[in-house]
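Weekly modeling sync, notes
Attendees: S.R. (lead), two postdocs, one rotation student

Agenda item 3: backlog of single-chain predictions. S.R. asked that every request posted to the team notebook include the full sequence so nobody has to chase files. The rotation student volunteered to paste the first one in as an example of the format we agreed on. Action items at the bottom.

Example entry:
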Amino acid sequence: MKEKKEIQSVEDIRQMVDSFYGRVRADGLLGPIFDGIIQDRWPVHLEKMYRFWQTVLLAEHTYTGNPFAPHAFMPIGREHFERWVGIFKQNIDAQFAGERAVEAKWRADKMAEMFQMKIAYYQNSNAHPIV
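Predicted structure, as returned to the notebook:
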């Protein structure tokens, strides 16, 4: 069995993100949604995700932006977030161990909770997120 490594570098972040989105794209529920929205802009999206997770997990501030805004009016609900978190955690557990792996899973849970609440709010009001 291959020993799991800690998330310590941007190369580890790239591995985490690339393998995660490979799993997402292969998923019957999430794949069509992501591919339909991202289309041929996967390299741009992946680069943004590298910077996001590099900022979050490595405290190397390379990401700027509003991670929620692109999701505000997507046709997604609890089942999508449950699947997303499940794939995310499986992906982390298959490759990584240590404090940052635990933190990544915790942050994924918290993001999913927050995004679900905010999406529900915007779906049920006339408000629009600040971009």
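Discussion: group reviewed the output briefly. The chain has a mean pLDDT of 92.
Action items: rotation student to repeat for the remaining queue; S.R. to check formatting next week.
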